[in-house]
Design goal:
Blueprint lengths: L3 E9 L3 H8 L3 H5 L4 E9 L4 E8 L2 H8 L2 H8 L3 E10 L2 H6 L5
Antiparallel strand pairs: 1-3, 1-4, 2-3
Length: about 100
Amino acid sequence: MAETILEVNFKFEGSKAEYLAAFGEAAVPIAAVAGLRWKVWTWNDGERVGGGVYLFDDASSAGAFLGGPIVAQVGQHPAVSDISVGQFEVLADPTAITRGPV
């Protein structure tokens, strides 16, 4: 099975500080998600878009995370809208050449 990148973005009606206050504590349970290798947290101040890029061992692990309680809680937050999700297979050979972290 191929490693899987998951990209999740959403509008957040608030500041970066409010975003971190709302979701920063989720870092600990996210780090414990089965099959997760790493997450890079993201924030675009101009568009007020937060989210992250995740690397999972495989598509099954990424799918389980998407269907799990952490993502559900984010989706229910009153300041969150326009959630977008992209799921991608990692192409190992060219990624290794370009020094990707996989």
